[in-house]
Amino acid sequence: MRIGELSRRTGVNTHQLRYYEAQGLLEADRGANGYREYGEHAVLRVRQIRHLLGAGLSSEDIAYLLPCAVGEIPELLGCPDLLAAMRSRLRRLDEQLTKLARSRDALAVYIDAAERLGGETYPPFDGAEPEPAVPA
User: Which of 48, 58, 70, 123 is the most buried (most CB within 10 A)?
Assistant: First the structure.
């Protein structure tokens, strides 16, 4: 099937399908005329990709998961490469969370110190841009 038919059958626009192909998530053969030709399995693959994207996974993560995905709402088999990649991803996320927690704690200390040193003499910050000074 051509890309337009795959788009119609999956509800995913052709631009996104080309992106999935560029990311290595979807494969297409090229016909003699140069058009993309997808097999019947592409419908299932696109649905799997959409479900995994909906779960908040990146295309990089999905590339690791797809070889072990089974079914439209994919169940993931315990492929050794998949498990190693996902454990590595989990470690990176844990490291990012630790760094964010440290940054948050440091910011809270600065806010506390600023409030103790006279922060109340200024109007509270509400996130709005300050109004420009009006000449008298």
Answer: 48
